[in-house]
Amino acid sequence: MDDFAADPSHPRYDSLLKRHMLESAAQKGMLAGSALIAHGRGEAYDYLIGEQTIDTAMNATKQALYQLKTAKNPVISVNGNTTALAGEDLMRLASHLNCPIEVNIFYRTPKRMTVLLEHLQQINQKLELNVEILGALPDARIPGLEGPRAKCCHDGIFSSDVILVPLEDGDRCEALVAMGKTVIVVDLNPLSRSAKMGSITIVDEISRVAKNLISIIENEEEVSQLPFDNEKNLQLVLEHINQSLTELTKLTE
Amino acid sequence: MDDFAADPSHPRYDSLLKRHMLESAAQKGMLAGSALIAHGRGEAYDYLIGEQTIDTAMNATKQALYQLKTAKNPVISVNGNTTALAGEDLMRLASHLNCPIEVNIFYRTPKRMTVLLEHLQQINQKLELNVEILGALPDARIPGLEGPRAKCCHDGIFSSDVILVPLEDGDRCEALVAMGKTVIVVDLNPLSRSAKMGSITIVDEISRVAKNLISIIENEEEVSQLPFDNEKNLQLVLEHINQSLTELTKLTE
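The joint structure predicted for all components is written out below.
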């Protein structure tokens, strides 16, 4: 971040900082070709929800944390964008939950895997954590998927009962659900296939979600299981966006 | 495009093809670091307008064409994304209008300028056109802008009375309007500063807009001046998005 010179008082500072983080990650070889385009789509949806954690997202976040804390074998799955935007906080979360992090990328190349695994190991050292980082030696397959994107680790994703998979592809999300797992999706687009497939979908920006999870844990805030309906959750998000747009439409009158 | 293997019957074919075009352009050095993120934002808004030319966009397109056809010194300003997505059709349009195309990029580097200028010259040869391509030797400045982004050509942007500037930065758009020009903006985000600043804003995807303009010209469809209110135009777009979302919200009920 040394070369990021924007003024923190700039109204678009957070957004510019995230862009910069992703451009740096792209230069390091952490991202697939489509990663920046995906981030841009996220930016547009984030703008429509007001670049904030809305109530229904916070509710989903708390239910997600309850599931992760009470899981037998929780796991956090990260790809390039997730690592670039929220690597440190998700490593802290894994440490709190005492669970592994697994690098699990859609366009798997040895180079990208190495860069991402090294990046997470450096976070372990920097933050003095001891999180188990999986993904280097996949020894299992997600049933129903073809090719390298099916690869996973037996002691991580394969055996997990609850999985946090931010920014995940729709097909993979569906395959994980079909394995009987509780799948926690983080996606800014409430209409995406992943959002619709997830057991719990947090429609929020991944770095805010990670910070919220850490903050709830570190403040020792109690989370308890409440009835959760993911379709209703997504509908509340759509209604929020709709209302924002109605207000924006009025503003231009 | 030789290495693009998606099936044209794929429901997301157009979107995948555009992504591929931009990724190729990025590899050739045509794009700034933020270009793919900007494209992703566009994708999200395009999804919300239904990936189609809506009526108010077609109306704006026709009014834009009327202005370009009756201008004394029309010019088409292109950046990296515009060139990648609609270079050929905008060169055809310039040929029909007998006006220059000026390469005009926000993050101006000699390398990017050279790659873009060469790409357009190759289109001239491939399509047997004789369009004047400006931008290599800027000899004027847009008042009110600082640094390299103020640079332009006297015989192109500087002296134009009507300018088509797809995917333009808000500040530059504002500076062009302040010069007294009729500024035709193409932007998928109806809430962007450029969209709000433009004289005529076409809220549509640039390759569709270019195809529509060529089609109107080649079918010798008459375009006549009608009263045009850009605020009203943008409001109709927001209402369209709002209505789409309302329908999508209902679908999930």
